[in-house]
Amino acid sequence: MSTGRPHRFLLATDLDGTLVGDAAALARLNHDLAQVRDRVALVYVTGRMLASTLALIASEGLLVPDAIVAGVGTAIHLAPSWPPEADWERHLSNGWSASAVDAAAAELPALELQPADARGPFKRSFWLAPGQAVATMGALAEGLHERRVLARLIYSSDRDLDVIPSRGGKGPATLYLSGRLGVAAEHIVACGDSGNDLDLVTVGGLSVIVANARPELLRQAPAHAYLAAAPCAGGVHEALRHYGIV
After folding, report:
1. Cα pseudo-dihedral 231, 235, 236, 238, rounded to 10
2. What confidence tens digit (pLDDT) does each residue in 193-204 have?
């Protein structure tokens, strides 16, 4: 994969609650970011699947990115036609069985399956109340182990439980893309606001946590992360100025 441009930085940003949430700040960020796209690759890293992500790009007036990491790092789609990255899917396949995840989850009444458009071949998503999270996740992990499924359980926003392949995640997918784009890990600007962004901001050498970040992320944030004073796109913009990128 190549965009034909010698990118120096990779801006890998979550969407809901990170880039999206303040329309005026987003417009200012879009203006400045558009001026440096020759040296900044733009990647949206989201829990949404592709169709939902493309709809959000259109409805919120987001810049068209160079790639989309969808489904909490379980799918990579490349501009401009957004085909799935087959090598990444093969990488995720080892030890994964969506049907086995479904079977294990069906034994746990606290898990409420999210709609079909929130799921994918390498992602199963559930709603789970915080008071039941610890016990239910423990039971689910045991059920997956019994079925020999290699999976990660990612709980965020006190409601969302994503079950993905052990090799998946926002951070690993972003590192994969940075290697393909020839951008050093220390030049990844990784931006997030919730628990499912933890491995993303951990891999980013120039990580950003926006001011409206949830406590679940703030408690575990890496020491090198830039804690923005502004929320949403304003915080991303603030960090890009701090790092001298815009």
Report:
1. 160
2. 999 999 999 998
